[in-house]
Predict the 3D structure of the following.
Amino acid sequence: MRRIVITTVSTVAGVVALLGLKPHLQAATAGAPADSGAARSAAGPSASAAAPAPQTITGDAISTRFGPVQVEVTVTDGRITDVQVLQYPHSDRRDAEINGYALPLLVQATLDANSADIDMVSGATYTSDGYVRSLQSALDQAGW
């Protein structure tokens, strides 16, 4: 009888722990670009004809412990519509692995937040810091 109680309690605790986990950020934001595109196309052709030209600004190259990080931001009608990472540490396989994972998360977080007020990526602290500082310098140049 005691084993049944312990097994049941353990199973319930495990299920509660699993249900409490949050989904990976990449999976949660995978549909965001398609949704925003659908919203733009639903606005009709007259809305796109009146839209101002995009402004592309290159941020400062920020030196980090592992190499420089520099971004280029495209702003259209008061929204960040694109971020390109021009420079990032990739001199060895580990840098390439870390930044191959971290940079898409940072770009998506920027597009979602529409600002440089984003979270760092765990395990890519130096790259995250350089990215945010370069992004903020570009937004400062744009007058944000």
Observations:
- The chain is about 55% helix and 20% strand.
- The helical segments are 2-19, 25-28, 32-42, 45-49, 93-113, 125-141.
- The radius of gyration is 21 Å.
